[in-house]
């Protein structure tokens, strides 16, 4: 008789597998648009924090400076971002989203919405909310375990606020 693994071991594998499969399928979905998931991730982040110094961007995304520099190079050659010297410290390069990128981001958001709708097909809204709440709590616990230098992209408060507003609207309509 084979013993069932502990729930926490299965949960870890499941989280890892879902994340890996989502990344893989998302890359395939974005391929026709000529952008990679990594480029999209950096572009979306910059669009929320336009003018961020390149080094700070690398730190906030928890990616090496060279890797972020390469991603920004590709985004810049595509016309999606520009680098400008900081007016106070010319050694600092700030990254800005272009007008072309803003239109492209709208298209990407629509594709992302379609992609996400496909992967949650058949799952009830309450289940999705419970899963989201549980994952967010795990994220907070993991960040609390860090030495305080870990960053989370600054979206938690924004995510929680948006989720709360959406739930209130849904209850008001019901």
UniProtKB/TrEMBL annotation:
Matching PANTHER family: TRANSCRIPTIONAL REGULATOR, MARR, TRANSCRIPTIONAL REPRESSOR OF EMRAB OPERON
InterPro entries: HTH_MarR-typ (IPR000835), Tscrpt_reg_MarR-type_CS (IPR023187), WH-like_DNA-bd_sf (IPR036388), WH_DNA-bd_sf (IPR036390)
Protein name, UniProt field: MarR family transcriptional regulator
One protein family per Pfam: MarR_2
Region annotation Disordered: where it falls in the sequence: 146-174
Highest taxon above the source species: Bacteria
Record organism: Bradyrhizobium jicamae
Record keywords, A-Z: DNA-binding, Transcription, Transcription regulation
Keyword tRNA processing among UniProt keywords: no
Domain HTH marR-type: 8-144
Residue spans of biased composition, Basic residues class: 164-174
Keyword flag Amino-acid biosynthesis: no
